[in-house]
Specification:
The chain is mostly helical. The chain folds into two domains: 5-94, Orthogonal Bundle (Rna Polymerase Sigma Factor, Chain: A); 99-252, Butyryl-CoA Dehydrogenase, subunit A, domain 3, CATH 1.20.140. 69% of the residues lie in helices and 3% in strands. The chain contains twelve helices and two strands. The protein has a two-stranded antiparallel sheet with strand order 1-2. A hairpin with a 2-residue loop joins strand 1 and strand 2 (162-166). Helix 3 (49-66) crosses helix 4 (75-94) and helix 5 crosses helix 7. The protein starts with a helix and ends with a helix. Mean pLDDT is 75; it is low at 154-188. GO terms for molecular function: DNA binding; DNA-directed RNA polymerase activity; sigma factor activity. Residues 157-187 are annotated as: Disordered. Residues 157-169 have a biased composition (Polar residues). Residues 25-93, 110-180, 195-235 form the RNA polymerase sigma-70 region domain. It holds the Pfam family Sigma70_r4.
């Protein structure tokens, strides 16, 4: 009978053998691939799927060595952030977002927040591009790059005024079985929910699939009949929007 990941880890705690270690890697590979799949790879020779999976496996093995079987916490929950952190550390080491895009990222966040207030809804891509005085092609390229950058920045403070308020704290429930699958029910979360209510129906669906259903960019693309690049652009814009909402909230509070 095949053992579950938790059963394999429990057995490893009692008798740490190479065979069990390899079995754990095999059983946990779907989790690693799910985490990797939620981050659009930057277009470099150092960011192939196997490179990111290798980084994730390194995080998995670190989690395995630090896991305490006597504590009442499931291994996949314990390992999730170590796997994700290992992948993100690797991506940060090869991050090549152009300086111009870094500047536009900050401008886009401000423009989207301002247009939301002025229009009372989520602005269209062409409206944001016009305000930024760039072409739609440039804006969509920016969003694709920002999707990666925003994911790498999820654990950073939402603004300099709120060092303890992180975007990931408002999107992900760190205590849940699937940490990215719930939005935390706190005051700042209510502000995020208000921002989400102003999104278009398709964007709300993508957000739900990405965070609640834990689908990868490719899976969402296939489900909605869009390209993975387009889904990446939409997620990038959503992350900018939500981070901007938290920044505005910190100013208003």
């Amino acid at each position: 009978m095949d053992l579950s990941l938790q059963e394999l880890v429990d057995a490893y705690c009692s008798e740490p053998t190479n065979a069990l270690r390899e079995a754990i890697i095999t059983e946990a590979l779907p989790l690693v691939r799910s985490i990797v799949g939620k981050i659009r790879n930057p277009d470099t020779v150092l960011s192939q799927q196997e490179d990111l999976e290798s980084a994730g496996i390194m995080g998995l093995l670190q989690a395995l060595e630090k896991y305490n079987c006597d504590k009442e916490i499931r291994f996949n929950t314990f390992a999730y952030y170590r796997i994700r952190g290992s992948v993100i550390d690797y991506l940060r080491s090869i991050d090549q977002l152009p300086r111009g895009d870094r500047t536009l990222y900050g401008k886009a966040q401000g423009v989207i927040s301002r247009l939301q207030q002025e229009l009372g809804r989520e602005p269209d891509d062409d409206e944001v591009a016009e305000e930024l005085d760039i072409s739609m092609e440039q804006y969509q390229s920016l969003l694709g790059n920002v999707q990666l950058r925003a994911v790498l920045s999820l654990d950073q403070p939402a603004s300099s005024d709120t060092p303890d308020l992180q975007l990931s704290d408002s999107i992900a429930d760190r205590d849940s079985e699937q940490p990215d699958a719930a939005i935390e029910k706190e005051d700042n979360s209510e502000h995020i929910k208000d921002a989400i209510s102003k999104l278009k129906e398709r964007e709300r669906l993508i957000l739900a699939l990405y965070y609640y259903e834990d689908l990868t960019l490719n899976e969402i693309a296939m489900l909605l009949g869009l390209s993975e690049a387009r889904i990446s652009q939409i997620v990038g814009k959503l992350l900018i929007t939500l981070k901007g909402s938290l920044s505005n909230y910190s100013v208003e509070a």
